[in-house]
Each structure stands twice: as structure tokens, then as C-alpha cells.
Specification:
The complex is a heterodimer of chains A (about 325) and B (about 90).
Chain A: H1 21-31, H2 44-63, H3 65-69, H4 78-103, H5 109-117, H6 135-155, H7 161-191, H8 194-213, H9 225-230, H10 238-256, E1 266-268, E2 273-275, H11 281-291, H12 295-308, H13 310-329
Helix pairs in contact in A: 2-4, 4-7, 6-7, 6-8, 6-10
Chain B: E1 5-12, E2 19-27, H1 30-41, E3 49-54, H2 66-70, H3 72-75
Antiparallel strand pairs in B: 1-2, 1-3
Amino acid sequence: MYAQLVETGVKRLKSLDEMEPQERAFQERIDAEIKIEAKNWMPDAYRQTLIRQISQHAHSEIVGMLPEGNWVTRAPSLKRKLQLMAKIQDEAGHGLYLYSAMETLGADRDEEIAKMHNGKAKYSSIFNYPTLSWADMGAVGWLVDGAAIVNQVVLQRTSYGPYSRAMVRICKEESFHQRQGYQMLLTMMQEGTQAQKDMVQDSINRLWWPSLMMFGPSDEHSPNSAQSMAWKIKRQSNDELRQRFVDQTVPQLELLGCTAPDPDLKWNEERGHYDFGEIQWDEFYEVLKGNGPCNQERVSKRRNAIESGAWVREAAVAYARKQQLKRDVA
Amino acid sequence: MSDWTLFEVFVRSKHGLNHKHVGSVHAADASMALENARELYTRRNEGVSLWVVPSAAITASAPDEKEPLFDPSNDKIYRHASFYELPAEVGHM
């Protein structure tokens, strides 16, 4: 999930009878699967929850460029370099679609970005892990974008129109990301040297568990889910989505000829799903709190990008003003 | 960047089709908005033509006016072709 632990600020679900007429009409609209649009009335908590979730999602796309940017200059061929740059540009685009959707709720882009820089707003825990080898570019595309797709496909049906439409665009592009990542790993496993094959396995060993953590806390520790589900901001539970991801990923893992760093991972005939081991939740919460291996580096890079880019934005405004003056004179 | 003008972006996906709203961009002026929109919304052959319009220039109908604005059209079923029943021998019309 690109948005984890999104606060709703709501302690208890209200029944339709307890709602004021305006809120009841809103909830009935959601229950009838009619999208909420920017100008429709909405409860303030719904608006604030969406701003938190969409901004967290957008921040994740933007910070997500950094682990990949780490390898652009060291890509093994021009072809791989172009693919990686196209993927990174898509991530920037996804961030922008999402910031636009967030702005329709009345949120200010600069303010929300500042919240990420001062630690008040989160982004996905996955991007606080380092990308140590070229194989990580493949594993990130396959596992991280794969997990994101599982989550985002469901979010296409989210109740807020602008968010849902951004998701539709994003999902179309994500499948390129996942396929290019998997194909890269497949090439290394089928045509690579032993050292390259070991690199792939090492990458999977490091990124497997953090990828499963992307779906957020287990359902029993997800206090905000009930309200988000009632509002249909969220459509499926964290554990359901995580299970779907594991089920679809294990056969791909086997096709690669690799293994997962989980001794408990095995097919459960009775459930019709793969069983898997317990996630290290302490690690998840630590990374989310800001104590992951790369949290500080990621945030300081983002802050630096905004601050060092200030003169470019100023120059663009000065240029636009000058052009306008020229037109006015003519 | 929030102090830059917000532009709504419209893309014509193919010759002969309407421009369709796809999203928005911030830009210092219209020509920059066009360039940003090109990078953001048409990286994969999504269009043959782009419009950017300052969001502030759009006048929209209010959502709570939906009923007075659109309901009267429901009363005028005679505006639809299917209202006029014709004998089968007329064929397709």
C-alpha cells in the first residue's frame, strides 16, 4: 500500500439513523456507489482523511523516485537506462496526478509537501530501504510496483471521483513498471553469471518482507479501517490485499528459480491460499516513525530538491511576466 | 508552486474526437502549462491535441442545482426518437 495507517480521526462508526440529514444523504450516495465530486458536500473528517491518504500516496510516488534515481548513472546498458528513466518519470507523473486530486479538496500543495519535509506527513515505508545493487531495480519494479498495483487496482473504485480517476491513469502505467522489473530479473536468472543470480536472490531476500509491509498493519491492528471502508475510501482490508499479493507473486518467484526468505511460506490446500510467516511489526512501526535505514536521507534529498530549485521557479515566473509585458505592449 | 496559476488540461485523443478533460497542472504561464501538460498527460500517444485553460476561467454549474437544472428534461420524453412509435413496415428510421 502506498498509504499506510491513515488516520480518520473517527473513534466509532455512526449508523445512518444517528446522522444529520446532510451526512445521511452523503453516506447513502456512497452506499449507492455514486462518486463524490469536489463540489459535493462531504463531512470534514472524510475530507481530512482523503487529504491525508492522497498526500501520503503522492509523497510515496515522489520519494519513490529516489531509490531508483540511485542507479540511473550506473545502469548496465543504454536500453536499461532509458527504461529506468521512463519509469522514474512515470513516478513523478503519478505524484502530480495525485497532488492535483488532493488540491480539489482544498488542500495546498506546498503546505502538504512541507508536512512531509518536517515529518508530519508520511510516505510508504518501503522507500526507506536502500537500493544496494542493480538487481534491486528489477526487484523494486516486480515486488514494490507489484504490491502497489494490487492496492491501486482496488482504489480505482474508491468513492472520491478525482482520486479514483487518478488511480485509473496510474494503473495503466504501473503494469509497464512491473513487467520491466520482472523481465530484468528473469534475464539475470536465465542468462546471467552465478554472481548475477546471487545478486537477484540477495535483492529478493532484502525486499520481500518490506514489500509485504506495504499493505499496512494487520486488520486487527488497523483502527482506522472501519471508517475508511464505510466511506469506501478503502475497498478491501490490508490482510486481504496482502494475501492476494502473496498468492500471485509466489508462482512468479518460482518461475524465476528463486526463494523467499520465509520458511513458513507454503501452499495451504484447505484455504486455497499461501500461508506465510509473521511480519516483523516492530520494524514496520520503527520505519514508519522515521527510524528506517534511509528516512533521513530521503527527506533531506526532497527538501534540498525543493530549496535548490527555488531559483528555477522564480526565473520561470519572471520570464512569464516579461512575455506578458511584451504581449501587452504589442 | 501553489502560487502559480492552475490550468485544466484537455486532450483530443484522436482526430475527429472531442477534447476531454484529463486533469490539471500548475504553471507560470500558458505556454509552460502546455509543456507541462504534454509531459504529464501524453507520454504514451494519448493525444493529438492539447488545450490548457486557467481553472479560474471555468464557470461550473453548482452541484446543488442539479435538480432545477436538469430535471425538467425528464418531462420532455417527446424529445427522444423512441417516443415516436412507427409501424414495422417503415423499417429502420
